[in-house]
């Protein structure tokens, strides 16, 4: 195992802030299955150690093995034989001694006798750095269908205070213990065994209420058709309800097939998301190795206040839980830190400050576009739901104000030929279909300004007519020129002064017309601005695109809108000719078209001005949904965007559109986002009604996000400056 430390001469060690997952709230875990030598604990101990040495080299912090992994699960009456039990105790002792030089916290299964030798318990032994941190006995013993465990084992639910002997020493059983790892913030481990997760109120549910964040399940679990999916269903549900990580390792090769079979299934879930799984029915050992986001777990519990409410409801039952042992993952390793004097690390603060091992690439699904699923089937399902939510919101709003019948309240919107207004027009068309109204009652206007191109103006007209909306063109240049002239702005007299006032006069003029047109025709202005623009404040306040009577896109980020349009085309919701026009919109660069360009000049580009929406949406998701600060967001962005060829890309992404970002670019645009996000809260505080669409969150002051408009970003900017690398 290598250190993240680089020599700096006589100075303090210098570390790369992106070198170790342990610097960013993660812990690397492994769910391991391996061939068992049935009734041969000594051989099994060696096989465990072979895997543990490899896991140590991979900087795994927690390794979980199957139920009774040191003896085999399918022993039947052999488990009550003294030679087997003696050998099992010796195997545990062997692992305890060997663990002194190994990084992982080790969780293995073994049958152990009570000190009075009158009972045997099916146990999970938690070992680290030459110590036994806890021994969790199985609490629920199945004795139905193929299971017969009460024939051999005593239940462990009431075994607090019972002692077992290992290598001549007494060790207390800890069925209700939670192990806190104080140099890995957020890591609080609880262990249950197989059947414990199949009961209506599993021990892990109470443990999570008592503070456990990571649940390990050592399982025997013979395989039958369909059982693998049942296991995943239960684990996913547990991790989602408990806002926890759930590590599962099942017995496999080597178990007796006298009457049963075994598949060696392993997987890890985190807050309902599958982080990884191994192949089933393997030949040889297999491990699911992933990085669990402890910050996410803590943040989700903090946000979901009902978790703590549930804890208060069950407070009396939770009194049996205790933090049985406090551990440090990064204890002294002579072979790995030969240049470090252990006497320099005598207290907890010093140990916590030690350089963490270099861990390499983050091992977990990490999506470049967190609002956009990589899986095509999932993307199609999400697109259907998002579009349907937008349509349902507008249908309800129109119905509430007399728009549920022909001739009623009309949707009024400005169409520019860009992504947002195009998608809003599609939503309006579908809403009119559901209301049984003719699409001609949609009033669509294009309002060319000083920089409007014929390409976008033509797209707007062709699309509006293809949809069947009523379409008109209103040239805002005369009115805008007059306003600029009345204001004494140089552009009013023909000077090429293209400042923010010049831009906002046009943006405001468009919405001034739209609101008056809505008054005139008995309609409502349908807002087209999206979630990304709200986050960045990329909208004109007041009578501008920040305002409308009802917004349909405010819950949808820019990176998803293009996929929603693609989905509309793929689903054939409109005819082929309309589909061709929609593709033309998708192929057009995002631009506000407010500043004129001369022949040969590059047209105004939104992303040139405020940065790539891909990075901004990445930041928005992790700040809004996860509550992460700039340092962790920058680390995740570097993992997701640093390598063009790493990971998956969403369906529909062309090779030419794919790109990567350096750490310097990530830091620069993260700085832009942070400044704009804080300085533009006043626009979000006054945003119109709009439906929340994604679990990633909304920015409505009546929904997911409430923030003072005059808050300072000083702490965030300081973290950006001090903790985010720019090279």
Strand content: 15-25%
The neighbouring-strand order within the major sheet is: 15-14-13-12-11-10-17
Largest sheet: 7 strands, mixed
In percent, how helical is the residue content? Answer: 25-40%
Which value, in Å, is the CA radius of gyration?
31 Å
The overall strand count is 22
Note the total helix count: 22
Query: What is the CA-CA span between the terminal residues?
Result: 26 Å
How does the helix and strand content classify structurally?
Answer: alpha/beta
Function: Catalyzes the ATP-dependent amidation of deamido-NAD to form NAD. Uses L-glutamine as a nitrogen source.
Protein name: Glutamine-dependent NAD(+) synthetase
Binding site for L-glutamine: 144, 221, 227
Binding site for deamido-NAD(+): 504, 533, 538-541, 683
Record keyword descriptors for this entry.
elongated; nucleotide-binding; disordered N terminus; ligase; 727 residues; alpha/beta
Question: Can you offer a commentary on this structure?
Answer:
This protein has 22 helices and 22 strands. Strand 11, helix 3 and strand 12 form a beta-alpha-beta unit. 37% of the residues lie in helices and 16% in strands. The two termini are 26 Å apart. The strands form five sheets. The chain has a seven-stranded mixed sheet with strand order 15-14-13-12-11-10-17, with helices on one face. Strands 7-6-5-4-3-16 form a six-stranded mixed sheet. With 727 residues, the protein is an alpha/beta fold. The chain is elongated.
Which helices and strands occur, and which strands form pairs?
Elements (H helix, E strand, L loop, with lengths): L4 E2 L7 E2 L10 E8 L7 H17 L4 E3 L17 H17 L6 E9 L6 E9 L2 E7 L25 E4 L2 E4 L4 E5 L6 E6 L9 H7 L4 E6 L7 H16 L2 E6 L15 E5 L2 E5 L8 E8 H10 L1 H9 L1 H4 L3 E6 L20 H5 L23 H25 L9 E5 L4 H17 L7 E4 L7 H14 L2 E4 L3 H11 L12 H22 L1 E5 L3 H6 L13 E2 L6 H14 L4 H11 L19 H5 L2 H12 L5 H12 L21 H17 L1 H5 L28 H10 L4
Parallel strand pairs: 3-4, 4-5, 10-17, 11-12, 12-13, 18-19, 18-21, 19-20, 21-22
Antiparallel strand pairs: 1-2, 3-16, 5-6, 6-7, 8-9, 10-11, 13-14, 14-15
Helix pairs in contact: 1-2, 9-10, 9-15, 10-11, 10-15, 11-16, 12-13, 15-16, 18-19, 19-20
